[in-house]
């Protein structure tokens, strides 16, 4: 159902973010990554973590905002 309906998909995403991730925002990008994709963290998939942080840095640069600290989980 989530994959078939954009409204349900958006609402599910927003619910997950507010329920599990929003409270971690002040702890940096790495903390939000840990909440969403914890299997990548703690040295398990360092190339993937590095690539994710690089994408985040690129987006921040394009938006003209600072990425902050704690980019890695």
From TrEMBL:
Its EC number is 3.2.1.14. SUPFAM superfamilies: Lysozyme-like (SSF53955). Keywords: Carbohydrate metabolism, Chitin degradation, Chitin-binding, Glycosidase, Hydrolase, Polysaccharide degradation. GO terms for molecular function: chitin binding; endochitinase activity. Residues 8-18 form the Glycoside hydrolase family 19 catalytic domain. It is an enzyme of class 3 (hydrolase). One of its GO terms (biological process) is chitin catabolic process. It comes from the Eukaryota. It catalyses: Random endo-hydrolysis of N-acetyl-beta-D-glucosaminide (1->4)-beta-linkages in chitin and chitodextrins. PROSITE patterns: CHITINASE_19_2. InterPro entries: Glyco_hydro_19_cat, Lysozyme-like_dom_sf. This is chitinase.
């Amino acid at each position: 159902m989530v994959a078939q309906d954009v409204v349900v998909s958006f609402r599910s995403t927003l619910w997950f973010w507010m329920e599990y991730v929003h409270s971690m925002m002040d702890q940096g990008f790495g903390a939000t990554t840990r909440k969403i994709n914890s299997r990548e963290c703690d040295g398990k998939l360092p190339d993937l973590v590095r690539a994710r942080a690089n994408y985040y840095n690129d987006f921040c640069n394009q938006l003209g905002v600072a990425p902050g600290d704690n980019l890695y989980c």
